[in-house]
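Possible race condition, two jobs.
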Amino acid sequence: MDRARTIPVLMEQLGPQFERAQLRAGGSSEYIDDAAVVNTRLDDLLNSARTEILAAQPGGPRTREQLERSMDRDRAALDRGVSMLTLYRDSVRQSTAMASHIAVMTGHGAEYRTLVAPYERAIVIDRRHAFVSDYAVAGSPAHAAWHVTDPAAIGFIVGAFTNAWQLGQEWRGEPRTGLDGREADAATDAWCVDTVSGPSAGVRTTPLERAILRDMVDGIQQRTTAARLGISPRTLTKHIEVLKEKFGAVSPAQLGCKFALSPDYRFDDSAPLSDAPKTRQPAA
């Protein structure tokens, strides 16, 4: 009887130790090279999400069909009280389909940001399941993914997502419209014409330079641009001086105007930056 009376106390002492041991040993990673399996598993987990969905999507804009297919599922999750944070590449702002979709979903409580710097693809559900691209299996297809359930690994993935999210720029679906060869100067109400590029000129800028110039056109402060791109303000200033020389501009304002009218502005930067490791993309 004396020993039986000590069991509840012993269980109370051992309980936290057992839980910590489970955390140390819990979870695993499963390699999946079948796109259909990845999508089916993702759909099941997204449909059952209860608290949070984090998605880092470094590819280009999604098609209208893909957006329509996911809308009901995402709205249902938001209606259940699930928070939804999605990070896209900055270039998707040029897609009218993406802009209209995000404007609608923002109204339902979803949050979106875009980032010009490279980042890795990941989807995290309730901080219990994560899907990331494959870098471990030699010769794996581009859509291959790992389904991760280990708490430590998921914590690291969430940390990487949070860092990229904090550097991103909020997007509520405002369209980024193209230009037809000229643009009004708001200060002087005059037309600013790019006499350097001309309509037949080729692209002369690097992905990093275009990221700097797009922020300039969007009116983003230079210190914010430097932080987002992971460079110092002094380095950013040097890049701007080089770009002024490339475009024959005498001021940052004129540089931004000439860039907005050049072929460089319309260049699709949805692919990863050329000086960064290629981002693999699971099918989902």
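Job #2 (started ~2 s after job #1):
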Amino acid sequence: MSETTVVHLMRHGEVHNPAGVLYGRLPGYRLSEAGEGMARTAAAWFADRDVTHLVASPLERAQQTARPIADTLGLEIATDERLIEAGNSFEGKTFGVGDGAMRHPGNWWRLRNPWTPSWGEPYREIAARMLGAIDTARDAARGHAAVCVSHQLPVWTVRLHLEGRRYLHDPRRRECGLASVTSLTYDGDRLVRLEYAEPAGATDPDAVPGA
């Protein structure tokens, strides 16, 4: 007989980032006060969802987001490097769609190939490592549910892969808000349903950028 297992991919909460830089994998970026509230709200949302396994990216903001879930459910937080934020050569800089960065000659070489992308970790590699982390979490929670706390681009990239969509996309159109949950339901090892929820509410369009 097959088993139903759910793997919840959660994006971390809002980060304190007053300079508005792309912080990526840089150390020292913690949740803001609002982000801590998002994590607590999400923890309550998971309370009755039969979660037996909790794992997070090694970055501080993901570990912080996982902490209220661990406390609420009485679980330990495992760490999986495969859930980490995507590598990006623009880390530490202000860079975003519409801010003029794409017109700066110094950035043109890094922006030469949006399909890979040339400015950071290839989408295919992001998807592959996320799939590995998902498989491990699914195996650890067989017949129950797992929560994997990660970051926006890794969660969105693996969703594009699972839905058979191309990786190239407009970052402004990602359905992956702060503290959002993308839930993957498996019948045995077969994905049968993908759902999206925002336990902490929709992300403000003016939210602090970063990752």
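DSSP finds four helices and six strands in the chain.
Logs attached separately.
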